[in-house]
């Protein structure tokens, strides 16, 4: 285990997901409950959401974080499901949720930007956490506890939006928490983003002209039935501020320049053998394979991915997962390309 990786995971676990594409997705005539949950959450996200990260349960909220020196990809996927909730009051809020059953964590994020120093890149986003039906009493107690320790409370119709000021490295973050439904908890980093989610939840029907994430080119390449999956559709509007975007000719601290990039997907399903982490990168760049090798082909001992092209703009990279783990740099690279770069 490299020193860089150990230090990085310590930063990630103390300062602060993961995600997924296997085969091109086919639509089911009768969606399962899990598929219906995902569909509903997508309708609650602002249309300019750039990154979507999902962790599908059910799984119990663990009592402690994974071992920073030897985490499994599954542990890291579940760990990211509660970002940025774990940052509130030094993890006190997350501790109160220990043992609860989470059915789905779905994050929407946009407007990634550089931190003032080290740590996670600030961003605007919201984590939608859907618990099972037994969450009601715990949720009531949690909100009472939160109101007693809140920095500010914003009224949103019949709901309260609680704001908590937290310092992470050299950056000041404000974390917003709301509970719009008995089994739904919202935790976000931007008031406007969270209130948009709340407004869309309250709307009986989304506007017929509203953009649909399922129309994005990345969507046909992501397996939303996988336990962990994600997509990112690169936003040219924020390219001047985003240290992770490839949509520039400039090499930055956390990017790989590719002005022709479109987006990417990620998936990992620990129930499938052999275990494989799958990344699909979409670009019209004819030199994409050489470019991808310079970014992802850094592992020794046979951990480099198997690369295939499907005749479209997508290049698929399959990374072997051994004993639940991937290579040292994979986690950092994955978070970076999804916009969640960590400066160490």
Summarize, please.
With 344 residues, this protein is an alpha+beta fold. The protein has 8 helices and 14 strands. The strands form 2 sheets. The chain has a 12-stranded antiparallel beta sheet with strand order 5-6-7-8-4-2-1-9-10-11-13-12, with helices on both faces.
Structural notes for this entry:
The protein is α+β, with helices and mostly antiparallel strands. The chain has two domains: 3-18 and 27-202, no CATH class; 213-329. The protein has eight helices and 14 strands. The chain has a twelve-stranded antiparallel β-sheet with strand order 5-6-7-8-4-2-1-9-10-11-13-12, sandwiched between helices. The model is unreliable at 1-28 (pLDDT under 50).
């Amino acid at each position: 285990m490299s020193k860089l990786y150990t230090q990085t995971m310590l930063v990630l676990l103390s300062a602060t997901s993961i995600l997924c594409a296997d085969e091109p997705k086919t639509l089911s005539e009768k969606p399962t409950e899990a598929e219906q949950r995902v569909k509903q959450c997508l309708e609650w996200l602002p249309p300019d959401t750039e990154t979507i990260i999902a962790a599908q349960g059910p799984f119990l909220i663990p009592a402690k974080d994974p071992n920073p020196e030897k985490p499994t990809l599954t542990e890291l996927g579940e760990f990211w499901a509660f970002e940025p909730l774990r940052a509130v009051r030094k993890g006190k809020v997350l501790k109160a949720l220990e043992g609860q059953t989470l059915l789905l964590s779905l994050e929407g994020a946009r407007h990634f930007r550089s931190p003032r120093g080290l740590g996670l890149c600030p961003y605007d986003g919201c984590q939608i956490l859907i618990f099972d039906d037994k969450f009601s009493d715990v949720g009531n107690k949690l909100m009472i506890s939160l109101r007693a320790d809140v920095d500010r409370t914003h009224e949103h119709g019949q709901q309260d939006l609680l704001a908590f000021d937290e310092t992470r490295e050299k950056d000041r973050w404000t974390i917003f928490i709301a509970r719009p439904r008995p089994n739904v908890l919202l935790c976000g980093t931007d008031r406007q983003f969270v209130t948009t989610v709340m407004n869309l939840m309250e709307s009986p029907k989304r506007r017929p002209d509203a953009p649909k994430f399922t129309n994005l080119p990345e969507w046909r390449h992501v397996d939303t039935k996988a336990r962990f999956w994600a997509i990112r559709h690169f936003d040219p509007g924020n390219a001047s501020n985003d240290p992770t975007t490839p949509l520039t000719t400039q090499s930055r601290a956390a990017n790989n320049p590719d002005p022709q990039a479109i987006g990417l997907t990620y998936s990992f399903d620990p129930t499938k053998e052999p275990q494989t982490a799958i990344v699909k990168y979409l670009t019209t760049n004819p030199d994409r394979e050489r470019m991808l090798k310079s970014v992802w082909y850094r592992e020794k001992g046979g951990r480099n991915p198997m690369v295939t092209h499907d005749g479209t703009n997508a290049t698929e990279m399959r990374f072997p997962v051994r004993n639940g783990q991937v290579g040292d740099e994979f986690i950092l690279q994955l978070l970076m390309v999804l916009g969640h770069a960590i400066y160490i």
